[in-house]
Amino acid sequence: MILKELSEAIGVSGKEDAVRKIVLNAIKDHVEDIRIDPLGSVTAVKRGTGATPLRVMVAAHMDEVGFIVRGFDGDGLIRFSAVGGIDDRILPGLRVKIGDTAIPGVILWTPIHQNRDQTVVKINALRIDIGAANKDEVNGKVKVGDRIAFDSRYLEVGERMLRGKSFDDRAGCSLLVDLLQDAPYPVDVLAAFTVQEEIGLRGAKVAAQTLAPDVAFVLEGTTANDVPNPNANPDDGIGHNPTCKMQAGPVLSVMDRSMIVNPRLFAFMRETAQAEGIPFQIKSQLGGGTDGGAIHMTNAGVATGVISLPCRYIHSPTAYLHRDDYDNALRLIQAVLRRIQPEHFQFSS
Q: Residue 118 region, left (φ>0) first, then alpha (ψ -120 to 50), else beta?
């Protein structure tokens, strides 16, 4: 597992260079036909044994949510915009890294003494402070268009708990690397480490058009809202969002806002997990989307399934993931690749 290295790399959408370098180094001895397409996605082929003549795409996105520099104030503060979906409520006081040299900065916040009503400040009113006294001190250090990432580090905490940034979707990328480093499968595995998922599933569309798979699977990180709801009535017990929870196994999507999973393929994935004794849970909530939303509509259409890892606090500086869920997700996608046949996703007349 190379999740630590991937998590600590900076790869905000459109600038995934550091993540791509790690991926290329990890897979180079295990695949062939490695390509980097014009958008920056990495595709590669792991030849199968030939027992099953299928070309199966497995995708995970390299990009993370973050920010981009859009200008400077005369006092040396930096104006910025979000890249991907980020909640304004978490921003004040956060540490960030700016540009290729990872210049440290802090997002401004109003002290409690001056903001007693706890008003949420919108991102266009926030600034980043790098300690510059004026605009001239910023020049040469930071440029308009520089990407900005959360300043966070990876840790292993508690009993098999993993903590870090960008588990959406560096956890999926790590799974895909593990998959490619294993022995050949009966099918050809068409790997796609995609870009720009967080701003519109763009890399996946190009990668799927290029690879032209028979069937596809997406490896993702998804929201585990299995913590107490602070607004719930304590007398009613703990109110949980039913999306999914940690330590209950990988998450199989029925549908989301970007796609409806092929029902034959979904049934096959569920039956595979049951046959292999792999714990799993089902995601039926309509929020969110994955690269599958683009993949399933490419070329003449591609049956696409989604296997997600339940992660707390995604799209924030610090997410949590349990190693048991990671290991079980790897077991599941490996079993799927060993068992899949055309009848598991093709409709009959």
A: left
Looking at residue 309, its amino acid is L
pLDDT digits (tens, 9 = 90+) for 210-240: 999 999 999 999 988 777 665 655 555 444 5
Can you tell me the distance from the alpha carbon of 256 to that of 222, in angstroms, rounded to the nearest whole number? 11
Q: Rounded to an integer, what distance in angstroms lies between the CA atom of residue 331 and that of residue 336?
A: 9
Catalytic residue (choose from 5, 16, 64, 197): 197
CA distances from 236 to 221, 228, 230, 232 (A): 30, 11, 12, 7
Distance, in Å, from the CA atom of 325 to the CA atom of 48, rounded to the nearest integer, reads 26
| Residues paired with 217 in a beta bridge | 58, 305
Q: Are residues 23 and 70 in the same domain?
A: no
Report helix, strand or coil for 228.
coil
pLDDT in tens, 65-120: 999 999 999 899 999 999 999 999 999 999 999 999 999 999 987 654 455 666 78
Q: Do 307 and 249 sit in the same domain of this protein?
A: yes
267 plus 129 within the same structural domain: no
Which structural domain, as residue segments, surrounds residue 14? 3-64+165-344
Please state, in angstroms and rounded to a whole number, the distance separating the CA atoms of residues 122 and 25.
40
CA distance 280 to 209: 30
Burial class (CB in 10 A: 0-12, 13-18, 19+), 129: middle
Residues in a beta bridge with 98:
103, 148
Is 197 known to be catalytic? Answer: yes
CA distances from 279 to 102, 111, 327, 328 (A): 40, 46, 11, 7
CA-wise closest residue to 194 among 330, 19, 66: 19
